[in-house]
Amino acid sequence: MGIENQTNKIKGAQSVEYGNPPYILEYASICGKKEGQGPLKEEFDERSEDDMFGADTWEKAESALQEKTVRLLLQKSGYQNTDIRYMFAGDLLGQLIASTFGLLNFEIPFFGLYGACSTMGESLSLGSMTIAGGYADKVITLASSHFASAEKTFRFPLEYGNQRPYSATWTVTGCGAVVLGSGSSAENKKKAKAKIRGITTGKIVDFGVKDSMNMGACMAPAAADVIQKNLSDFGYTVDEYDKIITGDLGYIGQTILIDLLRAVDIDISEKHMDCGIEIFDSEKQDTHAGGSGCGCSATVLCGYILGKIQRGEWKKVLFVPTGAMLSPISFNEGQSVPGIAHAVIIENREVQ
Asked: What CA–CA distances, in Å, run from 173 to 51, 65, 292?
């Protein structure tokens, strides 16, 4: 079914396995003040005390955050912008203005992506396919979010001072970015921090939930669907992974996800981790159900997760960022909130 080259394989209904897995050559993460006070504060490259990042609007602040993160990534990797063939990036703002204005000065061919909070999974998927297909030697993939710009877009301006229900998550102010490189390059292999074994592309899943303040319930069905497909497409059991890591389901979404998978005889309860739960201390930091936003999974990946993989503490994880595909227009028109999730298999560089 479909087309496959000599090394890459189409697996099952929704997955691809790479014969020469693309390498993660470098990664960088920058977070905001609140995130820099959370349990993972020591894992991020930089913790900003200024959530405006020197800008005069929240939207410009997120653009500045993206630019700052990519500059840090290039500095850490030793690459110039001319070494990068493509950039794959996205955010939560209308027409991706955070990415557009944040990345324009790099003058790198650009793919703007919108997968809501699943965008880091989408960017890693498309970037790795581009590398594995032989269309680039190096690409950058990234995603960001900002608490204030997201609240202004999807909920209420901060000046309104509205109360948040306990089901609500807190949009992360942060950005994570990686350089992906060809798995057939000896030079890249020397610099590799980890590698991407394969991907499972998620479908839009809609259980009819209309509560935009309960993102976990909206996204959990999509996460359950793509995890189930990943296991069946690759012929894996849950024990194949050291961790199965969702993006931003929070406490409520985590419970729903585990229940949905148990209903089809898949138990991930001992393996599951959620970036939105890990990034904040919900009691001390008053973040209710946990963290969310494109920057949630991106910063936790590029701070905490890849560090554990690079050190060999985890050999293989399934990274599953999750997104709620709503807009202010669809919400105001009374439509439901469909979910999407993309799964990326990330391994330690020494795994065969």
From this structure: 8, 9, 9
